[in-house]
Model the fold of this input.
Amino acid sequence: MKVWLGLGAVLVLALVVAACAGHDWASPADLVRAIAGDQALRSRLLFEWRLPRVVAAAFVGALLGLGGTIYQGVFRNPLAEPYLLGSAGGAALGATVALLVPLALPQAWLLPVLAFAGAWGATVLVIGISRVAGAVDAAGLLLAGVAVAAILGALRSFMMLALSDETVSLQVVLSWVLGGVQTPTWNGIGWILLITAGCIGLSLTLARRLDVLGLGETMATAFGLEVRRFVMLAVLAGSVIVAAAVAYGGLVAFVGLASPHVARWLVGPLHRPLLPASALVGAIVVVLADAIARSALPPAEIPLGLVTAVAGGPFFILLLARRLRT
Amino acid sequence: MSALVAENLRVTRGKSTLLRQISLIFDATESVAIIGPNGAGKSTLLKALAGTEAPTEGQVRLGRRNLANLTAAERAQTIGFLPQHFEPHWDLGVAELLEIGAGRARNLPVDALDRTTAAFELGGLERRRWSTLSGGERARVLLAMVLVVDPPVLLADEPAASLDIRHRLDVIRALAARGGQRLSVVVVHDLDLAFSFFERVVLLAGGELIADQPAARLVADPRLDEVFGVRFERLRTGEGWHLRACR
Done:
């Protein structure tokens, strides 16, 4: 119970700090005024632009935390991360199409939809390939994922070279690929809230079976789990969650990898507490990283993925070192 | 009453035949040891009996039902399976492992967890993590996980092979003793233990059933020497048998 209250308190604190942070720093009193409905320009900017983005960052982080936990649970590998099965490459390709190919649809709507479709489509493709190849175990999935990711990456690079005639579009694509939370309207926030709540519910239905799978395939089978079918189901569920995160936040590195580990230190390895804890940790990390991205080098904005990678890289190395030592 | 019946089991993998023409009938209460040299098909037979690997031909019946027609959940409740190696991927606590084991039963008596904890002397271990347990403690935890739902059938694949002699004796004894109230079928490497503690012994070699007899009878059978490719000196001991192999 203490852990949950602590995580909740840290998240609230992170939200407040992040809402204050920016190239124009606000005080908590400014925030209260903005939320109360003050019509001054500064208050309206805070309410219409900064607050929705901070809240969206929390949801993106939560989704990444969930996705990472599911992938690590399915592959029973602490180094698994949510972009493992080509979903990052697929999402980036979708976003590149949305940003570079002239289509008669509004980009604000097209970008998340195509990014989602790319992430989901790539995962389904990987599962399909591994099935056709007869490699239905986790190692076969991984190999297919690596191959598909390489192909998608090459396609994206080619499109960026062939389709961009002005340097501006290229920069837009790059900054998206490096991660950055979109600023939604408050209506949009409602949608993200619904999606995130749905994803938490979806992942909790997998919790008990992820625990059983963690005993190893032989024991899981003996304990009544249909391992192959469940692995496919969980990978599909995980990829929906990751695709949603990608649609709203671009490719944010390391959060999906690190959150489950931090959460495991806090609440242990059983998935029912682990999934929500990992979502909370992810939310805290992305909210803070987004605050740094917005306020470190004003007036420019550092891509979020760079911030998380610079902080996450050392974490990853630490993790590897710990693992090698045991 | 027969609890578990194997009818003409045949298992092939690729071009090699791992089991051929195996028919066995097991009672609802008895202790059976499966023995045989390496590659005899012991583990394959156990997996087919457990329903985790479907036979190429033939069928396994559980009571009156074909094992293949049971749902995975029904199978998991009725048949407890102890694998040769067990290493959970996450460093779970003992209480958590028991909880996962108990999760496969639909209506578990409220005191099942407490009774299992007491029966396997796990009190005081509940808060320990798997990585901190000794080999003997791990064996007890694994047994407790599998037996917490009290399955009518227990199939064990050399679960004690890596333990020191005292713990191996404890585990094999516990498994054989369970044959008093339930069906307990155990793949045993150590012939002394197989003949000393089990009522019935099944001898496999090269995927075929060589002999299936009460332990007291099979121990004198010359086919034993033939199958293992040695000459056994059979010594009667206070507790059972000691088989010493000579060339």
